[in-house]
Amino acid sequence: MTAPIDIPEDIVGNWQERGFSCDRESLAPGEVTDRRIHTFDQLIVLLSGEVTVEIAGETFKPAIGEELLIPAGTIRCINNHTLEPIIWLHGRLRPAGQACRGGEKDGIEG
Q: Does residue 14 sit within a domain?
C-alpha cells in the first residue's frame, strides 16, 4: 500500500487565484480515460507515478509537478500505462462568474 499524498497548498492557492478548482484524482494501473472534450479549460499536475496525456493528438509524458493546460474544446485522454496507480491534481476553469465545483460531470461533450 502506498502512503497518502497530500495536495500541495501552493498549487491549490495558485490555481484558486487563477480561477481553477483543485481536486485529487487517481487512475489504476493500465486504466485509460475516455477521450473527451470539455467546455472549460483544465489543468493537470502529476503527483505520483508515470502517465501519458494526449491533448489534441499530441502526446505528453509530464514529470511529477509539471503543469499541463488543456484548453476548452480540446480532446484529451489520460493513460496509466504502468503497473502502479497514478495520482494527479485536476483543475477546472469556468467562464467568469460561474463557479466550478469538484466532481462535476457537466461540461463534457462527446
A: no
Radius of gyration of the chain, Cα coordinates, nearest whole angstrom: 13
pLDDT tens readout for residues 40-73: 999 999 999 999 999 999 999 999 999 999 999 9
Structural domains of the chain, count: 1
Q: Where are the beta strands (DSSP E) in the chain?
A: 23-27, 36-38, 42-48, 52-55, 58-60, 67-70, 75-79, 86-92, 108-109
H-run or E-run covering 73: none
Global pTM? 0.78
Q: Using CA atoms, how far apart are residues 47 and 108, in angstroms rounded to an integer?
A: 24
Say how many C-beta atoms besides its own lie within 10 A of residue 38's C-beta.
20
The CA distance from 92 to 82, in Å, is: 26
CATH of the domain at 91: 2.60.120.10
Provide the residue range defining the domain that includes 71: 26-96
